[in-house]
Amino acid sequence: MSHPALDSAKLHAFLLDQGVEVAGELTVDLISGGKSNLTFFVSDGKSTWVVRRPPTGGLTPSAHDMNREWAVTYALQGTGVPVAATVAVDPDGAVLGAPFTVVEYVDGLVVRSAEDLDALSDDDVARNSEALISTLASLHAVDYHAVGLESFGRPEGFAARQVKLWARQWGHVKSRELADVDTLVAALSDRVPAQSRNTIVHGDFRVDNTILAKDDPGVVRAVVDWEMSTLGDPLTDIALMCVYRQPVFDTVLGFDAAWTSTRYPSADAIAARYAELAGIDLGDWDFYLALANLKLGVIAEGITHRALAGAASDGAERAAEATAEFIAAGLRQLG
Question: Which 3 state secondary structure label does DSSP give 30?
Answer without folding.
Answer: strand
